[in-house]
Write a structure and sequence with these properties.
Layout lengths: L8 E2 L2 E2 L20 H26 L5
Antiparallel strand pairs: 1-2
Amino acid sequence: MSNSSWDRMTPEGYDDPGSHGLDRYDPCEIDPPAPLQMFTRLGLLLMISLAFGLAAELLTRLPPH
């Protein structure tokens, strides 16, 4: 049984073959959302919060057992 932690060791140090061909994440390359997307997201969050508020109000009006 071989020790897999030593398989990627080279005389120069640790060799990570998975990261050599990948591009690094650059946050400057991501475009900001369009105004329509922002208003859609805000509208959806508003509808969810109003639904939670309505559910909480209806639950408080129920008569106790």
